[in-house]
Write a sequence for this structure.
């Protein structure tokens, strides 16, 4: 999901395509389509948290329901992944466990998105 797509505007306001995406992705209320992500706890190996499916389902846009701490963590992960800048001076051992967990989840999701795009482009 790319939030820029559901926020596209033209002269009359939000575009028809953006409105449809907002409904499908659950930007404003429960989505019309179920979305799934790899379970961050078992990484697809099946556990109780994902009901032994390897995936977590959601019906709202994660960006729409995320608390500010999640947005902060995502920015920190992006800085680490894209620019090599960690939140705390030192290496990965100096980072908080929560950051290391968040980075693992982000890496997993970015990999899944890339594989999905590569499969679609073939």
């Amino acid at each position: 999901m790319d939030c820029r797509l559901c926020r596209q505007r033209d002269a009359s306001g939000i575009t028809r395509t953006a409105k449809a995406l907002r409904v499908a992705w659950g930007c404003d209320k429960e989505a019309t389509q179920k979305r799934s992500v790899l379970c961050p706890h078992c990484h697809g190996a099946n556990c109780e948290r994902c009901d032994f499916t390897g995936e977590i389902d959601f019906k709202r846009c994660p960006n729409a329901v995320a608390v500010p701490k999640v947005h902060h963590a995502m920015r920190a992960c992006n800085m680490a992944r894209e620019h090599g800048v960690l939140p705390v001076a030192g290496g990965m051992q100096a980072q908080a466990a929560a950051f290391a967990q968040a980075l693992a989840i982000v890496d997993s999701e970015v990999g899944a998105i890339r594989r999905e795009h590569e499969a679609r482009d073939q």
Summary: The longest strand covers residues 35-38. The CA atoms of residues 92 and 100 lie 8 Å apart. The beta strands are 9-10, 13-14, 35-38, 55-58. The mean pLDDT is 85.
